[in-house]
Amino acid sequence: MATAGYPLWVSSDSNAFHPETLNYGEYLRMSQRGIPAPFFQSEASRDTATIRASPITIVQTLMEVDQWLHIFCSMVTNAQILEVLSPGEEESYKERKQVMSAELVLTTPYVPAREAQFVRYSHQQLDGSWIVVDVSVDELRQFHRPSTRSVCRKRPSGCLIRDMQNGSSLVTWVENVDVREKEDEMHAILKPFVESSFAFGASRWISTLQRQAERFIYSTGINISPSDAPISPEGRRSLTMTANKMVVSFVLTYATPRTITGLHQTKQDRKLWRSRPTSEGVILANPLDCTVLQAALWSSSHLIIESSITSATYRTDLSGNSMLYGVDQDLPLMPFGFSILPNVSGSILDGTLLTMVFQITVKNVSSKQAVEVVTQIVKEALQKIIEAVN
């Protein structure tokens, strides 16, 4: 699946969103697993990208569940290792096999989370490249619990990781799954987006890995820009960790072309949708995301972090704001912001799907007044966004 070309995979020059399409007829001819079970639909996608990390670092990220949760915090929740079938070679990930479970999510409450149980296996080939593969098998029924969410069964999926001998890796990612969706929990307007393999496809996985590798490099101070100079290396790491925790909190709470994704990339654009004035301080930016630390002009005790995550490969953006009551990264976060998804159907991109989430703290006001305040904030932010993109 990772190395085969035509006729298994058919290139699509006219569709930049799906560079390759699986030929299901050819796949069923060569596969022993056959067609999906009743009520299940198949999704398959493949993508390749250069990741600024060594192969063993990527393998470790995928095999260590805590690291997997951290790197894919916008996609994976409630992941755990149910059983280690084979620990592999000592001090190595060679031939490790483990049973895992996880919930796969999209940053909107209108697409149900997908539950998955699978065996994950890591293997180093004779040429030095690595393979990490997932597959759901019937024997996993010993761990089965009745599901209240969508169910995802993995056909052989995973990645082929090649060392580029310059500190980077060439990664080919394959997602090949059968899914039984909870149709009553999915909003009709998002159904084409999910069925187009944008939501949970290979491009989203590999672009998230690529972005997080870039974020780690910038957080260590490598290739530091003049605008970042005032902050120490420890401060950069602390700010990056806080922004990541903010995204995790946002996802756990709400995940159940010039487009809007550009509204966070420049100082002038960021002003277009803010409802209250701020003074921008530290900016940690790379081509794939941007984190901004600001001071709230209406309060000397409030700091704001804005973190925008933009994937160039599938054009999705997540922006979240957090009030920090102080500078300690262990203090409570109150994430609010936007989940911005492309409105796609097949190969057609038609506008943007925007989910807005706001939280505020209130004191000495009624619930009705609080709702009125939030409603007004939402209306003002939405109007500014509409004016900015039109």
Automatic annotation (TrEMBL):
The protein, known as: START domain-containing protein
The beginning of the lineage is: Eukaryota, Viridiplantae, Streptophyta, Embryophyta, Tracheophyta
Q: Which PANTHER family does this UniProt record tie to the protein?
A: HOMEOBOX-LEUCINE ZIPPER PROTEIN MERISTEM L1 (PTHR45654:SF77)
Single annotated GO MF: lipid binding
SUPFAM superfamilies, sorted: Bet v1-like
CDD domains per record: START_ArGLABRA2_like (cd08875)
Question: Whose protein is this, by species?
Answer: Rubus argutus
Read off the Pfam families from this record. Answer: START
Residues annotated as domain START: 1-218
